[in-house]
Amino acid sequence: MRLGIFVLSILVLINSSAMAFNSAGEGCGAGTCADCHSLSVPEAKEIFKNMNGEVVSTEFAEVPGLWKLGIQVQDKVLPAYVDFSKSYLISGNVIRLNDGKNLTEETYRKSNPVDVSSIPVDDALLLGNPDAENKIVVFTDPHCPYCKKLHAVMKEAVEKRSDLLFQIKLMPVKQSSLEVSKTIVCSQSMEQLEAAFEKKAVPKAECDSSAIDQTRAIAQSLGIKSTPTLVLPNGQIAPGYKNLERLFALIDQNRTVKTAQKKPDNRRSIALKLL
Length: 275
Fold this sequence. Notes:
This protein has helices at 16-20, 41-47, 103-111, 145-160, 178-187, 190-197, 211-221, 244-253; strands spanning 8-12, 54-60, 66-73, 76-83, 89-90, 92-96, 101-102, 125-128, 134-140, 164-170, 229-231, 237-239. With 275 residues, it is an alpha+beta fold. The protein has two domains: 8-111, Disulphide bond isomerase, DsbC/G, N-terminal (Nuclear Transport Factor 2, Chain: A, Roll); 116-253, Glutaredoxin (3-Layer(aba) Sandwich), CATH 3.40.30.10. The model is unreliable at 1-28 and 257-275 (pLDDT under 50).
């Protein structure tokens, strides 16, 4: 996954020796980076005062030797990086090689929760308590094996907790899933979704299934490209399969519903012109 707002990709291998710098001797290696380096928001604002955007946060990056900045551009907070000498600004994807995680994209998602109320759920299949405190939107594909695995975890989750409601929206990623998804949306049938997960035949759609196109358009505007993907109660996006422990942890960490922008998250249309 990539963020279109960035023009440079940086591949970084994080391991224990790199993180430590120098574990013995004098200087920064003898303690923590904070012992030798500091960068406040006011200082960063002054350094980058000629930049198109405003620095709103600073913190140590996971990558040794870099600060991570949050830069407000229009209604989005975009991540960027600056070295400890405060001489070089880096706008790009930082990818941790040992697990392939895009750290920049993860930061972007955390800094820019989506407006959950902007996602229509009239066509969603409901799993759990309709009056639940925690409502989670799930984008799924009936022919996606990881969606099938997550669905089983979701069923177990609602058996264990009554404060959960999963609102399942059909988003066919595979071409073979399109007609099946239309049928499931038309019938509003959880049984048919679960039959499709088991690769069983389902009848042909017999209604206006424009909801599928709407779901695809909304997902694209939110930067959702794969299934399964969860949208948590506070607007955080969590792509991929989660086991039960991880699912509960994500929900409990993202309970609070934040006031969010109602504009589509068209991240590809925002250019970070830094200098």
